[in-house]
Specification:
With 470 residues, the protein is mainly alpha-helical. Helices cover 59% and strands 1% of the residues. Helix 4 crosses helix 10 and helix 9 (248-259) packs across helix 10.
């Protein structure tokens, strides 16, 4: 059957709600109501979360009085503290993933959010008008939970339309101008309707497979599956070079759960995909697996040799880890924490600082009176991102078991058995140790030569490197 949908339903999807009276739960960015039994009941995410424009990031030294965020301090805090608290996560992600520019003030973000909301709704309305038969999820009637999801989603649409009636004339006038801007911006955008319909077909298969055991999708929260669907279709429609690939539903669901806002999720997910969309292409993921093989060769040549046999030469068993950021290898809340750690790119910044420290050492050597020639340090490969060190840490922690695997099928069975069982803090510690040791070994000859000439630890490159982790 097809979920009931009339013209008012289509128009409701195209509306924007900028004034919300929804109660906000204890966790920032999460929309909860409280029942008589004092239990939190999950509701469907609002179109936007206006409160996010003025909420402060309380991490020490990260946000100034006007609401600007020091991006380098934010990323450093995330890495060195192993993520942020659930209470801070929603607001931090809006900056970490680029939805809000870190240089924006709280006042500026209010205007930005209005623009993003109107533009998103204009984009969604465009594909809905061109493909009206795809506005509603097609159901076969056998999945009772999906039938409830559609009901909750439709109720949410009705609530949004009712609230819009109470807008002031000033707000309506401002929105009319923004809507005109959006119309001009997107009027010349054309779609390959056949490709978009194929993307929607795959989305409609994947969205129901999103992990419904998560608290976010329980009770009325089931309606968030339909919110997720609209976000993914809108992204596919306006990013035809990427479109949709399996696994994006799990990634986007992560943003929706944390941000609890349709508009905020769309723009944060889009910013993330600008950087990582290549991972969903065969060439991009194959490159990552080649880098993983190269890193493992640096860290453990014997284990690398075992894995690059004819039957295990593409490291395809790491595919899911790298694509979804270890989403299923750790307990869910820990996986969210890891995702923000991986996304802060702090180790990549450290690699750049390592190069800068080595450059300062070379300059000091060049202008000194020392005649003894020094061996040049091997360059640190900055393509070795922290997620690759996480992969290596897991493999090295289970080294004996991996060495006992005789073919790729046994490797896949072994890595599948790790789902939900890994300890994040231990794995992070091991990954940091491997990164530190890799940097140390890559500059070892240089360090020895330098140490022979200078014994002061303040001038020692290894001391500088160690300080980056303190």
């Amino acid at each position: 059957m097809i979920a009931s949908c009339d013209e008012s339903h289509v128009e409701g999807n195209g509306e924007t709600h900028l004034e919300s009276n929804e109660p906000v739960g204890k966790v920032k960015g999460m929309n909860c109501s409280v029942s008589a039994g004092n239990k939190a009941i999950r509701s469907v995410a609002p179109v936007i979360a206006p409160a996010s424009t003025c909420q402060r990031v309380s991490l020490p030294g990260v946000m100034d009085a006007e609401g600007r965020v020091d991006e380098s301090r934010l990323r450093m805090y995330i890495f060195k503290n192993g993520g942020v608290s659930p209470e801070e996560r929603g607001q931090v992600w809006r900056f970490l993933f680029g939805m809000y520019p870190c240089s924006s003030t709280a006042l500026e973000r209010s205007l930005l959010l209005e623009q993003m909301a109107v533009r998103y709704q204009a984009m969604k309305r465009k594909w809905q008008q061109l493909l009206p038969e795809t506005v509603c999820l097609h159901l076969n009637g056998t999945d009772g939970e999906l039938l409830k999801a559609v009901k909750y989603f439709d109720q949410r649409q009705d609530r949004e339309r009712n609230r819009q009636q109470y807008r002031s004339e000033e707000v309506k006038e401002g929105l009319s101008f923004l809507e005109l801007q959006a119309q001009v911006l997107f009027e010349r955008v054309t779609f390959d309707l056949e490709e978009l319909q194929e993307a929607i077909r795959i989305i409609d298969k994947d969205v129901p497979r999103t992990d419904r055991d998560l608290p976010y999708y329980r009770n009325e929260g089931l309606g968030n599956l339909l919110v997720l669907r609209d976000i993914l279709i809108t992204f596919a429609a306006f990013h035809p070079e990427v479109s949709y690939a399996q696994g994006m539903n799990d990634l986007c669901s992560r943003f929706l759960e944390v941000l609890d806002s349709e508009v905020d999720t769309y723009w944060s997910f889009s910013c993330y995909m600008e950087k990582f969309s290549k991972d969903f292409c065969a060439d991009g993921l194959y490159r990552k697996m080649k880098l993983e093989a190269a890193l493992l060769k640096e860290l453990d040549p014997q284990l690398h040799s075992h894995l690059v046999t004819d039957s295990m030469d593409r490291f395809s068993f790491c595919h899911r880890w790298l694509l979804l950021g270890f989403q299923r290898e750790f307990e869910h809340s820990e996986a969210l924490r890891l995702f923000e750690i991986l996304s802060c790119d702090h180790l990549e910044l450290i690699s750049q600082q390592v190069d800068q420290a080595r450059y300062r050492e070379r300059l000091a050597r060049k202008h000194s009176l020392e005649d003894e020639p020094l061996t040049e340090a091997q360059a640190v490969n900055t393509d070795f991102t922290f997620e690759l060190f996480m992969c290596a840490a897991i493999l090295l922690e289970n080294r004996d078991t991996v060495l006992s695997c005789r073919n790729e099928m046994e490797l896949i069975q072994f890595t599948s058995s790790l789902q939900g069982k890994l300890d994040l803090n231990r794995t992070l510690q091991k990954a940091e140790e491997h990164f530190y040791n890799y940097c140390k070994r890559s500059a070892w000859d240089y360090l020895i030569a330098r140490y022979r000439l200078r014994k002061s630890k303040e001038d020692n490159f290894l001391y500088q490197l160690r300080n980056l982790f303190s």
